[in-house]
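User: Structure tokens for this complex, please. No commentary.
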Amino acid sequence: MSELIIKNIQKFYGDHKVIDKLDLQINSGEFVTLLGPSGCGKTTLLRMIAGLETIDGGELYIGGRKANNIPAQKRRIAMVFQSYALFPHMSVKNNIVFGLRIKGMELHDMFTRLDWVLPLLGLEGLENRLPREISGGQRQRVALARALVLDPDVLLLDEPLSNLDTALREMAMEELKRVHRQVGKTIIYVTHNQAEAMTMSERIAVMNAGHLEQYDTPGALYRHPRTMFSAEFIGSPSANFIPGTIEIKNGELVLNSEIGLLEIDETRKDYLRNFSGRSVVAGIRPQDIILSSTRTHRRASDSHVTLGVELIENHGDRSFVLGRFENGLPVRFMAANDSDYRTDARVEVLIDGRCIHLFDPETRQNILEK
Amino acid sequence: MGKLDRFTPTSPLKRLVWTIGIVATAFMVMAPVYLLVKYSISDMESINTGGLPVPLWPYHPTFAVFSYLFTDPEFWQVVLNSLWIAIGTVLLSSLLGVPAAYVLARYKVPFRRAILIGIISVRLFPDISSVIPISVFFISLNLYSSFSGVILAHTLLALPYVIFIGMSAFEGIPRDIEEQAMTMGANQFQIFFRILLPIAIPGLAAAAIYTFLLSWDEFIFAHFLLDPGGKIQTLTLYLRSRITFQPPQNLLAAISVCLSLPVIIFSFAVQKYMISGMTAGSVK
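Assistant:
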């Protein structure tokens, strides 16, 4: 009923294509994040949905209605801006009911909505304060309350947490998830922060240079990145990329990479035999590179590689290690803090063949995920 | 918008030079004000001293001229006239200037630069040189010796200030706020009257007060556009008419004090807004 369909949508600034034929379908009540680096077009797309930017091609349907030419005022959406855009001359209460007043709502219904939203966002007692008299976290909640009272079909959030410090942001993230569960609204959330996207969304649309790289659940994005860009952008720290070729050595299918021969998992061999002789790029997550000394049992799919440790960032329970393979290729991996390694040491790590993502160096697509 | 950056000169010599400079400047500014006030409360004996030096403080300070002025119906008439003209100018220039400022600040207007230069061009000439063509034009429109003529002329003088101060007030409002209101269902008029105008008020108030003062003590245009013997006279013209062969200095001084009082009061009262209004938008 309040689902959102984007078909072949386009946006130009002069000759420059900002959004290039993008398709996206968002189910009613779903929490979807548009994720991508700055300049990828995610905010532009959100503003097109809001009606603040014209749509230069394609179609937009909000709740079954074609919305291309419906003005922002009539789209039944609500938006929270990165800056919160609270009206500085109005009290918290007047900020929240402004939209309802404009719509000519009865005073009685207005107060019913106000009484519903104030406790929902913990704003009781702040009704008569001015925006400049409340904290950043409270402003963010007022902005959200102001959007929620409108009872929109779709709630649009443009990086609403980026102005908060880390502790507040984590609280706000939990709160946003709770609010979403309670009100069940369709939410489109824009961010460049993959951790925010991963924790909150039901599905994430990864965007890059005006097109959609991958649209999937957070788990699927992490385990099955469709493109090198997804593999790089999702997960922290981002994946290592190692060029190589798929070859047959001594009758066995292997990945002859720049850092040595890497085993290919049995289950993939039949499929990958067709790729024999092809160049590929192996994507390996830092979490999938493991110090050999910490693994007791061996698997046939494990490959052992030595590397030099250059930098160790302690994260408490584990460390993020920056090193170099023997051929000079830099590598990032995570290691438990109780294991034995230090700066300038040479250590042996193992890479599980089941955790290697293989990409075509030309198309940058994952050749295993079709 | 913080306080102005201030620094203190460190070496004693620098301090001395600075102190002398400040005292001299303060003296130059304050001396005429002092003389004005002193003359307005002087008795004739302290003015016509018969060759003796004029005393620094009157022998017998008196408010006699003020009570004469305040009981003169003509004086009240010209004060009221000046007041109406000033209020009319404020209303008209706000009515014309504020929407113009909003549009020039927010929309892509063709020939924007040319329009801005055109607006400010009125003030590029000395009033005394623009007053002739304007008067001739106004007389041809039957606006001679009428309130509307003077109000129109003063509006012409005030508009550049209203538009430029107004523009910076509107430019200081983030666009997000406007778009937010739009997504909440507000149309252009609701956005302007319920969001933008109230936020811009401090800046616009500064412009309005400036306009009031500009009209209140304006002389040249009033002089050319009002019949010297006619019914409508302003306070500045009244002051001029009192300068005769042997001017009564204490009366002139008293009129000047009455003329200056609103200027001084307003200037102090809105000093804060004047500065914040003029810099609105330049500081984030």
